[in-house]
Amino acid sequence: xxxxxxxxQTRRLLLLPLDGAAMTALIDGDAPAVTAAIGAFKRSDWCDxxxxxxxxxxxxxxxxxxxxxxxRAIIRRADGAVIGHMNFHSAPDPxxxxxxxxxxxxxxYTIFERYRRRGYAREALLxxxxxARSAHGVxxxxxxxxxxxxxxxxxxxxLGLTPVAVWQHDADGAEVIYAGxxxxxxxxxxxx
Length: 192
Prior knowledge:
By secondary structure, the protein is α+β, with helices and mostly antiparallel strands. The protein has a single domain, classed as Gcn5-related N-acetyltransferase (GNAT) (Aminopeptidase). The protein has seven helices and eight strands; from the N terminus they run ββααααββαβαβαββ. It has helices at about 20-30, 30-40, 45, 50-60, 100, 120-135, 150-160, and strands at about 10, 15, 70-75, 80-90, 105-110, 140-145, 160-170, 175-180. The two termini are about 25 Å apart.
């Protein structure tokens, strides 16, 4: 039996896993249910995530062993603000990623615009990777980043990832695939 993952904490953030009910509430725009699951939120922040949430909810319903890889809300601990979300695109070593980054897990993240440029994406990503390494032995990471998303591309390179391919995403256009060893997490990067 696969259990739902526990929340992760960093110095500033809480990474709260979304179960099927929370994903459904976000998809449906059920404000009371979402607020009960993750806290106060702005529906408009989640509009771009609806397709991803539907896909991850289907994946979880079809295969309960996907539970460790579900999306997570990123919540600022100081005030409970929901500042973004992150997720794994699949369990580690999916077929589609093998030609570019064999053995890797692909992660994605969104920090809502008003919270960007404060290091939240890096802090959340390092915590999630630390968990994937310690709980599941994941040692390789892949990130698909929009070709025009310079801040995320710089962060990927700072984490030691290198561009390995470019592919055309149906909805998002050209994306650069960055891959490499999952960065080691130092105690000051993430406290989980």
